[in-house]
Specification:
The chain is of the alpha/beta class and about 325 residues long. The protein has ten helices and 14 strands.
């Protein structure tokens, strides 16, 4: 492996479930809320939408119910510039739903996705014509938790040795404990992540899965085979491990409205930089910049700052970067 490895430039195909999402407006506990706001939520489509924002062609592959919720999801993802023409409409199963419950101790998410349209996805999806357009395929650890057929899908995708795959694969561990039977997630997710080309994992979720003692470097030791492993340490920093020396970039300081979706945004920004041939440092910075776009909104998908602002941020010295606080008000302060 060489530090200069990059996936072939081209289209990214993101595979996974997207649901309709209901959240109290204003942000009160559900028990006290009089009004709910309808949006959409899905890790893989979040990545696809942010990739499209960055000018990277992206396709979302999934299934939706033949219902108004499915219509809303499809239209929302398409409006972001993502190709949704290959999303299957399932007349026998509903679109999944989640509800956010803001509380003083944090936001809890309640899922209503059992037997949803996307839970019926299986390994045959990898034979879809859309896969022939992919330079990179993005998967997450949410999909194998949805059903046996979904796990087969991800297992088959990652079961092909990396040199024999027609596309690179990125895998975001994205551990959602309520979706997994007890004691199954650690081994399954480590096994899947270990066969990807690019892995994203939060240090906190790695510690919850594989040991509270883990450092970022120890996570890389657990996952020695991927070409790139990115370990995100919350609001502090992110480190990219490659065949060369690791690169660490502090997160941008910003006011946080809601953290949901920031990890997906980070992954999209990093992948966009990678597909453009940027250095690891600039890939990590672009990940942080994109994450701020999600942190600044109540939904999963927020607007990026103007391209000139992004360019100035990426060009900052290390000292200027660490001193910067982003307000996303259209101007920079730092």
């Amino acid at each position: 492996m060489r530090d200069t490895w990059r996936p072939t430039r081209g289209r990214v195909v993101c595979i996974g479930e997207t649901m309709a999402a209901l959240s109290p407006d204003p942000a009160l506990p559900l028990a006290d809320a009089d009004h709910l706001r309808l949006s959409v939520a899905g890790a893989e489509s979040n990545v696809a939408m942010y990739l499209a924002d960055h000018g990277i062609p992206a396709t979302w592959l999934s299934a939706l119910g033949d219902d108004p919720m499915g219509d809303r999801v499809r239209a929302t993802v398409a409006a972001a510039g993502v190709d949704v023409t290959h999303v299957r409409i399932d007349p026998a199963r509903p679109t999944g739903l989640l509800m956010k419950n803001p509380t003083p101790s944090g936001t809890r998410v309640h899922y209503y996705r059992r037997d949803s349209a996307a839970s019926a996805l299986g390994p045959d999806l990898l034979d879809h014509e859309a896969m022939g357009t992919a330079a990179l395929v993005h998967l997450t650890g949410i999909t194998p938790a949805l059903s046996a057929s979904c796990r087969d899908l991800v297992t088959r995708a990652l079961g092909v040795p990396a040199p024999d795959r027609p596309y690179a694969i990125s895998f975001d561990v994205n551990h959602r404990a309520p979706l997994w039977p007890e004691d199954t997630a650690p081994d399954v997710l480590r096994g899947l992540a270990g066969r990807a080309d690019i892995v994203f994992v939060g240090l906190d979720e790695a510690q919850s899965l594989w040991g509270t003692h883990l450092t970022a470097a120890a996570v890389r030791e657990l996952l020695p085979d991927p070409r790139i492993v990115v370990v995100k340490d919350g609001s502090r920093e992110a480190t990219a491990f490659t065949a060369s020396d690791p690169v660490t970039v502090p997160a941008l300081r910003t006011a946080v409205i809601e953290p949901v979706g920031a990890g997906d945004a980070f992954a999209a920004g990093f992948l966009a930089g990678l597909l453009r041939g940027e250095t690891m440092l600039r890939c990590l910075r672009l990940g942080h910049v994109t994450a701020v776009s999600a942190l600044r909104v109540t939904g999963d998908h927020g607007p990026l700052p103007p391209p000139p602002v992004i360019d100035r941020l990426l060009a900052r010295t290390d000292r200027e970067w660490q001193a910067h606080e982003e307000t996303w008000s259209g101007t920079e302060r730092g």
